[in-house]
Amino acid sequence: MKIIDGGICAAKGFKASGTYCGIKKPSVDNINHDIKHKNDICLYVSDVVCNAAAVYTQNKVKGAPILVTKANLEKSGNKAIAVIANSKNANTCNADGVEKADRMCELVANELNIPKEQVIVASTGVIGQILPIEPIEKAVPVLAKGLCYNKNLEAATAIMTTDTIKKEYAVEFEINGTVCHLGGMAKGSGMIHPNMATTLNFITTDCAISSELLQKALSDIVKVTYNCLSIDGDTSTNDMVCIMANGLAFNDEITAEGEEYETFKNALYEVMANLTRMLAKDGEGATKLLECICSGAKNLDTAITVAKSVICSSLFKAAMFGEDANWGRVLCAIGYADAEFDINKVDVDLRSEKGTISVCKNGAGVEFSEEVAADILSADEIYIDINLNDGNTTAKAWGCDLTYDYVKINGDYRT
Amino acid sequence: MKIIDGGICAAKGFKASGTYCGIKKPSVDNINHDIKHKNDICLYVSDVVCNAAAVYTQNKVKGAPILVTKANLEKSGNKAIAVIANSKNANTCNADGVEKADRMCELVANELNIPKEQVIVASTGVIGQILPIEPIEKAVPVLAKGLCYNKNLEAATAIMTTDTIKKEYAVEFEINGTVCHLGGMAKGSGMIHPNMATTLNFITTDCAISSELLQKALSDIVKVTYNCLSIDGDTSTNDMVCIMANGLAFNDEITAEGEEYETFKNALYEVMANLTRMLAKDGEGATKLLECICSGAKNLDTAITVAKSVICSSLFKAAMFGEDANWGRVLCAIGYADAEFDINKVDVDLRSEKGTISVCKNGAGVEFSEEVAADILSADEIYIDINLNDGNTTAKAWGCDLTYDYVKINGDYRT
């Protein structure tokens, strides 16, 4: 497997474009006082019909685009050609939300001359503000005209809200000697605590694979990637991951589990795990990426539950911001995880590029140098290694520190 | 029922004392440069043996004092006479923790000439630091000598860690014409998200009531008071609520459910709900108390789950700090609550002493004046009224805003 450029355009036959339509407010550049218009809407399209799969938020409040996309994929038998997505307005909790989301699909369908139910729609941003449809009506022809096989970046920037960096990742891999590609883009920085789904994530591949296996692979990988991510414990109303496979790599279609399916799943894991990591690193206000690796678990659910519990602890997150090796907070979070294990067998190490220290052995503290610990925690990426010494399963969870800036950003999000 | 002074000494026959033994570091007064020694250990004692009941943290990591107290009450058949508690060191995750906690009970037992198993012990503070026993050995005789029927304040200040105010509450009530008293003290400011128990809370009463009913009343009331509190989502390892009833009011002992039991339970609710409110208001870094009232629920669990979900949302907490009427975050948190109801029937109002505004009706936003909303949210105590319009049950949950100071306090807690 090879890491490549191209994001959602890395796979053959996917074109993308992005533009500014007026949902985001123009911003003024502090240096040269120019008015800047950031992309706020994007479109991407496959040259041929794709098998599609998606997972959605488990929040009872569901954004209107979620409802419309779900209905479309049901109607089309999990086939899709195009995706339209906007940022800054979530089109959620609005009386006319479904009508507007449906209209977005219709606009794309008319412009590209494809069936409306083969269009996926997504929105992200503020909840409960009416989505203005006129700017989108004007933008769709512009987006269609702008479609290119290398404009993945235009699309990746158009879905950003409080994100500070664009998130793309793509890989090249072989299925039975045929070169395939799989890539994706993601957005998200706050309201991130995916539950069976996640923030907006879009994946494309040219690998030929049946809809059923595509959905199975997506659901399995979501469980160990996006669902192991938490920025702030809040599960969004608009979370969605969708994947489209257009088959243009011309490998023999994967229709059964086996070696090829595993190869495909590995590629999907690689892309989704790396996008997850980028989301964690760009968490609202974050200065540090936290990666918790729970090993020695008797099963996957235990490993995930323990790793996520640590990543979600506000106290531990604040301690990491302060670069304070307060391992008692790791133990506390392990202790309230809803999983079965023997707390007296638990070991904990803290690790970064600067070194590793053991802080807890058999559930009790061990002496360590605060100086060495402070040096290790001064790094940008901190690893928390937990060994339950109770089995052979490992899982990872990703998060970030809790900072003044998280409070600042969310104390005044709407204005 | 009448609110009275006296905290844990409000009930007849309870003496208390507190002192500085050296577990807390001395602090220097910024104004007159005096060295200050804050109380860090306390003792309170009943004149006669009490029926006792307690609930403990559900965290798998349990502080050694929790283990020792539980064992003592089992051995004594839920009888207790004295309570010793220290702050600044939790005596948790230490290899010699149980031995030290047991030694604390022994010191008190020897000094007061009572059975060791009738002593309750509690510790709160940093996890994983060895508890120095010598200062406690020196302190116990001082504490015993200092016991007075009005030194509740000495004890209430001795259990404070990051608390900024002492928390006491007491009431007077009548059981069949006999005047009874019930009062308590609490500590806690961070690592507060009680699960079947809570942070340290001590209640005393002179009401005569059987151990069984005392335990039942405590467990029932904990569910709708302390367990409906969250400061930061972290369930502490040392949470404990204990209540001691010495019978010195000389009412006919309550031994069955009925009118007298309900009167007692109301008094217990009054004290525990008010202590819970004080804990929320003094949450680490908090500037605002948040009280979420969920009504119209089909059962108590639904009402509690929904109210707690809102109170726990980091995004909503930060929005309240920013005085931003971002009601979408209330809807989002309601939506991911693990409970069954129809999101399209949900109404939400925001309220304070300055007024009330409706922000959401039938699950969708309603227009409101941002100016009026900002004025309402500028108050110190904010009420979030949620009506599920699905039944007749109501529950409350308490929390606080998420602020820069929470991050500051927890970025550097140990030093």
Short descriptors:
homodimer, 415 residues, alpha+beta, nine-stranded mixed sheet, 31% helix
Give an account of the 3D structure.
The structure is a homodimer of 415-residue chains. Chain A has 415 residues and is an alpha+beta fold. In chain A, 31% of the residues lie in helices and 27% in strands. Chain A is built from 11 helices and 17 strands. Chain A has helices at 64-75, 97-112, 134-146, 152-158, 211-224, 259-281, 300-312, 314-321, 328-335, 370-377, 404-411; strands at residues 2-4, 14-19, 27-28, 35-36, 41-56, 79-86, 119-123, 167-175, 178-186, 200-205, 240-245, 289-297, 347-352, 355-361, 364-365, 381-387, 393-400. In chain A, the strands form 3 sheets. In chain A, strands 1, 2, 5, 6, 7, 8, 9, 10 and 11 form a 9-stranded mixed sheet that branches. In chain A, strands 15-14-13-16-12-17 form a 6-stranded mixed sheet. In chain A, strands 3-4 form a two-stranded antiparallel ribbon. In chain A, α7 crosses α9 (328-335). The longest helix of chain A is centred in the middle third of the chain and has 23 residues, at 259-281. The radius of gyration of chain A is 22 Å and the shape is globular. Chain A starts with a strand and ends with a helix. The model of chain A has no long low-confidence stretch (mean pLDDT 89). At the A-B interface, α8, α9, β15 and α11 of A face α8, α9, β15 and α11 of B.
